[in-house]
Amino acid sequence: MNSQRKSYNNVSEKTLVDGSLRRLRSLPSIRVCCEVPVLGRSVDLAYVRDEVLITVEFKVRDWRRALLQVRAHLLAADYCYICMPERRVSNDMELALERTGVGLLFYTDEGKWPFVPVIEAKRSVETWETARSWTLEYIGENQGRASWRRKKR
């Protein structure tokens, strides 16, 4: 990692989601929502820009687990991404993302846009229009909602 860049070594998934949601909410061209239900699963964050539906699964470390989770998003979204703190991208990771069409974003807390594209997602060929419509409807009704899972105290 470039020493000029901020380190996110001890950051939580919640911090990444909250920071992304806060900034995306401030952009008038974006409709965004957290914890969006998709076919019995929950998408960390989904947003719509120019009627294109994009889902983002956040992980601090385990990209393989994120990839398994994102596979279900491909049925409802136009484009699917995994977002992580900046890290080295291994050959295995790059090949797995390319093979599935899932993109990779690095989180940044600089500027208005919270993501740095690393690997562009391919448009999903698995999208089921009914699931996509349900997801768009949910985002429209719950725009800006931040319902992150909270630990009970």
Topology of this structure?
Blueprint: H1 13-25, E1 30-38, E2 41-49, E3 52-58, H2 63-73, E4 79-84, H3 91-100, E5 103-107, E6 115-119, H4 129-141
Parallel strand pairs: 3-4, 4-5
Antiparallel strand pairs: 1-2, 2-3, 5-6
Helix pairs in contact: 2-3
Measured between the Cα atoms of the first and last residue, the distance is: 36 Å
Q: What is the percent of helical residues?
A: 25-40%
The helix/strand class is alpha/beta
Largest sheet: 6 strands, mixed
What's the shape? globular
Q: Return the string of H and E elements.
A: HEEEHEHEEH
- How many strand units? 6
Strand arrangement within the widest β-sheet reads 1-2-3-4-5-6
CATH class: Alpha Beta
Tally of alpha and pi helices = 4
Share of β-strand residues: 25-35%
Please tell me the overall pLDDT: 89
Radius of gyration: 15 Å
CATH topology value: Trna Endonuclease, Chain: A, domain 1
Q: Which second-level CATH architecture applies? A: 3-Layer(aba) Sandwich
- Tally of separate domains: 1
Note poorly predicted spans: 1-5, 148-153
